[in-house]
Protein 1
Amino acid sequence: MNHARRYWVGGIAIVASVVVFLVPFAFIILMSMKDRKQASLRNFDLPVNWQLWDNLVAVVQTRDYMLVTAFINSTILTVASVTLLVIFGAMVGFVLQRRPSRWSGIANFFVLAGLIIPPAVVPTIWVLQGINLFKTMHGMILIEVAYGLSFSVLLFRAFIASVPRELDEAAIIDGAGPLRLFFSVILPLLRPVVITVIVVQSVAIFNDFTNPLYYLPGKENVTVQLTLYNFQSQFSTQFNLLFMNILLITIPPLLVYIFFNRQIVAGMTAGAVKG
Amino acid sequence: MSVAIEASAAPRPAPDNLRRVKSAYPTWFFLPAAIIYGVLFLFPTIASLFFSLTRWTLFEAQFIGLDNFAQFFREPFLVKGLVNTLIYGFVTSGLKVVLGTLLALLLTSDIIGRGYLRAVVFFPTLVSTIGVGITFTVMMHPTNGIINEAISLFGIKGPGWLTDPRFALLSVALVDVWKGVGLATLIYIAGIVSIPRDYFEASKIDGASAWQNFWEITLPLLKPATITVVTLSLIGGLRSFDLIWAMTRGGPGFTSDVIASVIYKQYQAGFYGLSTAGNVVLFVMVAIIIVPISVFLNRREVEE
Amino acid sequence: MTFLTSRRTLIATVAALSLLAGTGYAQAQVTLSYLIDDNPTNLATAEALKAAFEAENPDIKIDIETRPGGGEGDNIVKTRLATGEMTDVFRYNAGSLFQALNAPQTMMDLTDEPFQANVIDSFKPVVTATDGRVYGVPEEASMGGGILYNKKIYAELGLSVPKSWADFMANNEKVKAAGKVPVIQTFGDTWTSQLFVLADYYNVQAAVPTFAADYTAGKAKYATTPAAMAGFQYGEDVFKAGYLNEDFAAAVFDDGLRMVATGEGAHYPMLTFAIGGISQNYPENLQDVGFFAIPGPDASSNGLTVWMPAAVYISKTTQHPEEAKKFVSFIASTKGCDARTSANGATGPYLIKGCELPADVPAAVADLLPYFQTEGGTAPALEFLSPIKGPALEQITVEVGSGIRPAAEAAALYDEDVKKQAMQLGLPGWN
């Protein structure tokens, strides 16, 4: 490609990307810094009074620091579910890939079923109630694990295929049992795909709206997506605060993105293209 | 696919080693995952088959046969919801395939600002759906929204993106594509990068044009990526709820309702049996569409 | 090491916190959770009630929890009651929405509580379940459903309050000719679209006195009762005549209040509780807003459709029944009314004995009161006469009011929706 073209194609793409992708984010940031009156106009002007800090304090203080509770809850939910997803998903993917048996057909079927079938919401509430887990964080964590397992198993199974069997055999000859083989030999080798699973699932769970809406009602259990949804009607005349809230809950994914950018791209595409 | 082949091609362990090797991969490793999946996903799904045949208050379920399904298919807006679900699923995944391919070609070619462009296209994938929904709802406001204000600078009156029954569903679908095209692009980029350079070298010697290269080499070899993108975005699109709910709640009226939002509204109204029946309908519909498509796509791949 | 330091910090923090909270723990404090919807007016009321109640009962703390309004909120209330996860005390609609809650299994029976003596008898039927027991007390003032109008526009154009639908449309024509918006609609909040249908019930009842009973029994239908169809027709008429604000499809409740208060538009079909919102957000325009009932076909029979206020209930699963009753009893007293008036001003007559309205009520409330003082000047809305209200009405009225669906078809569709609800409730005569 010649030099001139390199510049003008890139230039056009950059301009287009600014209009299509950056304007919405700039809009969020501008709105979150305006005062109430100016924000109600919902236009693209620069703020007259810069109220970033005031808006931040106002949103955080709303309804007895509900947003703080929400961030704590979302963090617990995300960390716990992702941990379980990594361990249990890797265990299944490992055995599934290494030892084809009559179970693996069934397991593969359930993995696909888990990807395709929309969860049956009301019966799930009914089951959760029956085992006293409805409206609890434990229940919510297990729900996220149940719904996320299929995708994790797929990623792990695909990756484990590239781990040479000789390593297992060496460990077995050294007298390692299945637990030691898995936790001290295999799991460390899965680092790239573990990071992928962590990133993909934590973003999905942190951003999950539908499931907490159904399974985790109650003020003390609120998650960040639910606060946004609740504030939508409460802040119907205070767009500055609404957008400040959006801005705040966009920061964690942004951090994940900045730190794990390369792994996301490598891992996600490897898993997706192979699987 | 490749997984199965590798596994069977692996050297068989000697018979006396067999038991030890076998026990190194114990079946109970499935157990923790199986319990969680079984109790919280599989069992409710099976139970839903029963509850969909009842009038249900969570306290008591009264068996009413297929009445719920009859009712569900009598709902005048359900037919609309079915059609909308198909439109939404196919429009979003079609656009993701086309735009994803084009963006991937652009972002693998030699242009300035490539790293920045990849980052900015992918980032919306990570952002909260509800946040995106609210932001675009405000920007698409018919009289106050910045989109229509920008359009009016050219002397054109913008449409009611979310309030005109003709556009509401498509507007939400466009936002869905905006948010999801990054993942499709990423998958295509990986596909393009993995095409061996030699192919292009060889075709250069044959005197092929860039256009021929694209049609003869790039596109056929991107098939695995396309299968992934189509399957993922169809499953997501047919089940889609968050974004539609955040932006239009199925409105105006029932004009942008999809099956998932109809189910949610029945649930909201306390018609638990009816809502569960809707769930079964959605499940059957997704299966009917996804299974043949993935079988078809995968078989053609094997034949080649 | 890090573990030690962090643990030490933790202990120090806990100690500091418990010192701060120390005074509170000294007494055996009970916290009651109280669920309301997140409408700012209702939140203001709840906070006023909380402050007044806590001042009187320092050992009881009220913890306000909010939920979305509309269908979403109905769902939350239903699910939480059905699963035994309800707050101690909660606020919810009376009438047909209450009937859908299965009160005998989920709420505390308040029939024999002494504070019921303060409640005006006409309210009790709308919080009485199928078992004949009373489950709630009124939390706010009664409301009228009708049309809020801008008095300045009326004065400018020399209009008078319409007594018939034809008069109303004639007024609209003049407002339009003067370049203002005749009718404000705010379909961004779908619930606001139902007023032409629901608030027309006085006129329905005037034409067909047995409608409520026949409708409950499955004999009378909207689509086949011309008087009941009229409400749907009104929605279609104002749309077809081009009387609506340009952004009617996206505007929300608060936009509607602003437009009618500041004179951007002349008429806003609404419930009178909205006056509280105007006095909070647009106090300088409060006296510019008047109110009249939805005019029917006949100028000689003009009256108001009345909404019973929302009630407070106690959930059966509460851990603190005595404290909860204390709070409910406080709400059903003159002190409760006073707290409410101090938060939002007067919005209509109270249903608690001894509660007086202040002398200087807003103009729209002054317009409302005469209907109550006239013999036969009011009729309850249908949802207080029949347990059945179809859940999809708000979507259907949005479609009619946006020209998506003709009125006749919409009425028939609503009849289907009603049928579904009746069957879920297991009412006789609907199979």
Protein 2
Amino acid sequence: MTDPFGDTRVDGIRFWFRGEARVVTGVAPTTSVLHWLRETERATGTKEGCNQGDCGACTVVLATPGADGVRVHTANSCLLPMPMLHGRALFTIEDVGSESALHPVQEAMVDSAGSQCGFCTPGFVMSMWCSAERRRGSRLPASRDEVAADLSGNLCRCTGYRPILDAAVAALEHLAGDDGAGPLDEASLQESLAGLGATSGLLVDGPDGAFVAPGSEEELAQALHERPGARVIAGGTDLMLTLRAVSAAQGAGLALVSTEWVRGMDAIDETATHLRIGAAATLDDAWAAIVGRLPHLARMWQRFASPAIRGLGTIGGNAANSSPIADLVPILHALDAEVVCRDVTGSRTVAIADFASGPRVNVLRPSEFISRIDLPLDGFGRDVRAHKVSRRFDDDISTVSGTFALRMGGDRIDEIRVVFGGMAPTVRRARRVEEVLQGRAWTREALRDAQDAVDADFEPITDHRATDGYRRRAAKGILERWWAETGASAPDTVTDVWAYR
Amino acid sequence: MTGGSAGADGTPVVGVGVSDESATLHVTGRATFVDDIPEPEGTVHGYPVLSDFAHGRITSLDVSRALRQDGVLAVLTSADVPGVNSHAPRIGVDPILADDVVVFLGQPVAMVVASTRAAAERAARLVRVEHEPLAVVLNARDAHAAGSHVVPPMHMVQPSVEAVDAALSAAPHRRSGSVQLGGQEHFYLECMAALASVMDDGGVLIRSSTQHPSEVQQVVARALGVPHNRVRVECRRMGGAFGGKESQAAQVSALAALGAACLGRPVKVRLDRFSDDRMTGKRHPFAADWDMGFDDEGHVLGYRVTLISTAGHSTDLSGPVLTRAVGHVDNAYWLPAVAVEGYAARTNTQSNTAFRGFGGPQGALVTEVAIDTVARALGMDALDVRLANLYRDRATPEDPHAGLRTPYDMIVEDNVLPELMDRIIDSSEYRSRRDDIIAFNAQSTVLKRGLALTPVKFGIAFTLTHLNQAGALVHVYTDGSVLVNHSATEMGQGVNTKVRQVVAQELGVPLASVRSTATDTEKVSNTSATAASTGSDMNGMAAQTACRRIRERLATVASGMLGCRPEEVHFRDGRVVGVNAACSFVDVVEAAYVQRVQLWSDGYYATPGLHWNRETMKGRPFLYFCYGAAVSEVIVDTLTGEHRLLRADLLHDVGKSLNPKIDLGQIEGAFVQGMGWLTTEELQWNAATGALETLAPTTYKIPAVHDVPTDLRVELFDQANRAGTIHRSKAVGEPPLLLAFSVFLAIRDAISAVGDHSVDPPLRAPATVEAILDAVDAVKAAGPA
């Protein structure tokens, strides 16, 4: 097999670890950082709680170089393949503080009895360390809410969280007033990362498969063309789970082609007509760009997975997954997003509504990838709201989600997008509901008709999250909540328990 | 006190909120769990092959493909078990590896042993199991109807069946209902793990994440056909357990030991989250049918209740769990005429097991729901019905114990409920908040608020009397440092810290000079599980006894050095003080060593005064009771069924706290765990296949950080235990889990507001978004408010 760079050079994975540059070769492309830490390095402070990116016990901190400097963020090491460390710095609990020199977050955790059994503790400490070090010297004490958001991807079964939150608040307050250079000081990180000499290339190629990190979209297209069956990895927070489930069958020969080193692929820019979000933009960056223009979507951002997932996962990955219960995709529908797809032959644009063809199936051709997602600026003139219903507030997959975009012309609905997740094999617009509402006054009567139309639009399924009947009722319920928020004759009351104060 | 001699009266160590002994190890990631122990040379890895069908006779087990894989050393089956193929705790059979019949989906049928865990896991997928299907029973009521139970039915009656019938018939009002309570996955963050090594004499050493090292020892010895003295089990700490590692840690340990014995090399078995959730038992789901007679003021006159637990495929601990459920239907209430029937139904699911509360929460919650229903029927605030029935002295000439007699004849001697309830009604401002909520609900159509105050009374001791024993071993070294080892295991509940405090206090030495070590069957033997909340009670007492023996000997030595009588010697703050002179603790210890005085001692404790008749279900099963109460306020969205806990006030009785910091952590942690059980945590099995569908944290949702109310007010009810416990403290592990009833009942209250409290909400537990919306819609359908 040839590689797209014309030779068979394997670069190895270069990253900053324990205060020095490390080069790792000879791992499988899907070997997780968690596995490597525990089994190879015998650094056992990082724990395996679920191996699914859902408990946070394996949380590590990464320093990632980018156009705007070094970004410091958490990651679930169980979902992080080793080659993704390339060019990054990896920090684990062993880097934070020792028993004789505890870091302020560790000291606060000891003082507030933030650990009971201690198994989730290293993961919490890493999330708190990242959160606190990012705010070092900021003079801005973090609110309890902000702290809780930073810890929303870590599960604790013993404490009930209160002492952990207390510890985080105390430590963050302490560090906000500290002007010293911390362990995550940007200038020194920048220097360390620059010294790695990490470039795009073939990072892994062995009996267990290959990991290619092309440097441009052309190379990416070429790599996919030359390695039929290769999978695009764009963050990998979901792909790693899929690969694990089929690894026994696939095993050798698996090729992963990463978007991470593709120049400019994570760019977010605005043209005269569009907001363009590169497919490799992280979920947090994509959400920030959207929520900056549509502030009502802030809570949906907060409830999207966890900080560790949002800092690594990408908008392109989320769209390409084509999950029927994705939480960002409905917003793309409500904004008439255009998916720019590309392969060696060139690029084409697919309307988001035509992109997913079934659960986890889409119209991407073999060897084709998502290059960019373009959002017409016109859509940002709509009033866009989103609500999700799930078992739990934090880090849970939607049972049903609804995104609603509205533009009024006088007292009539001039433009309408009603999009549901969890109601059909794909995220889908509720066309009947939209028809019922188009041109109408946004009254309770219109709402009732819209609610009736839900049954014409959808035949949801029953699964372990909910019955079909519940999904219908919840969809109608969030329609009503939306009406209560935006309807002309609606009572001006909060109907969302999470907004109630 | 031992003979009123030497005392320890320095700066108090007991009663102080010191941090957990391992806290700095936890926060630095250096605390070692089983999978963190450096592997002995040659360690290989076992990965169990789980059945993918719920019930069937195995017709063929083909391991040939798995055996041919790189790195695979062996595939073990039940035929490889040299001794008894069962890890059952006391009664029944729980195969370590399935024999010829598989009884639930997820049952281990074989174990692949390979040089790496990944190789073992990959090969495990290649084992082929053919079977002849047998009828699958998943529903406990179906099993009950078919008479399929894992233990004989239980009946607890007070005073007689005839009296209960008569009271029910004569009661001015009567209501009946059914309650469905879901199970709960323990979701300890550390999955089951064991590392077994063969010792030179053919014995095995097992490092196990277990609440019950002695039982692991017994199970492994039986399975390998060797005497107990050839099996050593050690546990330094667990990454959570909550009852899940009481009996069922034995299976994984037995698998590791079997592998080690068969291959002659160290074998580690560490379950991944999926395997752990598929293999191991959970909190018992319960179904209940109740019938209550009451008067105009809400006094319960007669009560009949049937409890049906889902035991799963085997007996495990379902008997004692059911006993505790039956024995806790009274919760905090005097029931003058009550008849309880209990059944443990056999189903083709995981074998349900101990989980914090051990059946107590299920039994007590049924009655709380009944009381709530009674209140609605009478148009009363549920709190007033609770107060009307609360245990309190109602002595009459005929019955001096009226008002305080439990259904099992034990008299509630240490009752603090009336005082505790008064305090929390006041501190939580329950009455004025009730008024606010009524006003809010009157003007809010979509969102409804709800409020509930629920009490807790929870009995402390193992109901199986002989388990109430514990031992400790205390060593004083010649440099004055102290080591304590005892029979309890550390799972995060802080038992090591509390016992250390007791030891430091008794010997009058600084806490820092006392070290706790791993629980080890070669140090203290024949131990009971660390369970039933009794760890600190029993092991604290045992350690105190050991310390006092040492202290008496040291006092004699010191009296010679200080020129006073032994009883005039006091141990305080690392000093030994006589009448006119003092010296350091180390000086006395050194002198004692030279004088050939024993510097270590054992201590043993057996909880006094307990007796229990399993046939009549009468006696004194508990040493004392723990009490508590909680007020929860929730808001419910009647359009989607979402809810949020707005405020919780907890007031809980831990006697004189040994360590307020640890006790607060136990109370809050238990409350949130109980809240998870009753709200977001839902176990669902596929009705066709019997596969557990909500497993691992992607689909099984324990509370996360935003589920905890920002307004959480927790207080200790700080009164000495009337029973002679260690420093008059009380147990704390399980009782506060029942405080979470208040969340469930507050949700019921909010739903009830939809029908202006005229309709009883048919709310099942857990109160998921769908369960709440179903109940809301049912109330709406029952008629306009």
